[in-house]
Amino acid sequence: MGRSSPAGFDSPRAWLVVVAAFFSSFTVFGIAYSFGAFFKPMAAEFGAGSGATSAVFSITAFVYFLLGSVTGHLADRFGPRPVVAAGGVILGVGLGLTSLIDRLWLGYLTYGAGVGIGVACGYVPMLAAVGGWFRRRRNMALGIAVAGVGAGILTVAPLAGELIRRYGWRATYATLGVAGAAILLACAAATPRPPVTAGAPGLKLGQAIRTRSFALLYTASLLTSTALYVPFVFLPAFAHNRGAGQVAAATLVGLIGGASIVGRLGLATLADRFGVIRLYQLSFLTLGLSYGLWLGANSYGWLVVFTLVMGLGYGGYVGLSPAVTAEFFGIQGLGRVLGTFYTSAGFGALIGPPLAGVIIDRTGSYTWAIVMAFAMAMAAFCALLPLQAHRAMKIHVPEID
What we know:
Elements: H1 12-32, H2 35-46, H3 50-66, H4 68-78, H5 80-98, H6 104-122, H7 124-133, H8 138-167, H9 169-189, H10 205-209, H11 212-241, H12 246-274, H13 276-296, H14 300-329, H15 334-363, H16 367-384, H17 393-396
């Protein structure tokens, strides 16, 4: 199959894979998380409520996190290159079709499937590839790769807001589709299979998901994801209703992404020194407490503070999740385990924004939706507290045939 020798670990070629993973994450999540900039113009054109419009994003997130287990398995079997290339084509077609829809429910199909499958193909397979190319600097390499998520949000969300202001949301989606497809195809070309590892194999998927460690990680991720995507969908509209311009409102989502880069890179760099589990728990606590800042925000400046604190916690959560998964379950078959773990975020995304939208429509206020997000995020932190005690689970789980 043309695999590299073990000498390829931690090599310049391995760092090229990190660069490709960075830009793949940049592209797919930059596009997906710019949806907040499209929220108000799409709702206005189709005369839809908050719950119905937010479902476009929630279905998309559910698709890409649910399919992560499938694309991770395909990448483990066939290598990342064909999977990422297919994702690029599907992403471009999906966004192109979304620019043509005349009913909102069609966006559930075109955007949900196109962007959802594109993210699933461009994220988990690339992270699994990075994990497979490194032994000594794996935490740092994964941190740099997932920093592309924050950089993409920082760049694409305000860019989308400006493009929408100038050309409308339809032309903006068509433009993002062409650009996104081209970047993913280039990333696929730069990403060969990881080297063969001669070490001990990781847990089988069936073993991994039956451990208490996996249950704790999955529960915490499900709860925090229910809260996490609420500001990505509603924060621009929240700010716009309080007097912020369209670009300034969309920029708040970009600031979350920018602050998350610090969380991803900073905490990934510190993981080997202070322990990846402890820093992971700290990220969840920071994310939960940030929603208290949103509750008390009465100016654009306070919203900026909220986005920066939230971004730090969010960056740690996303940036350390692959390293935590590898810590417990090994790198052999990491794509399958990581993809299965990420289904928790899919279910959380499917629940959170539509639930918040229903609360907003029923109460006429954002307050109780933010309270809901705050409660879910703090519950996630509490669910994660026992994790350190079960760190050795991967060693003591018996082999199951």
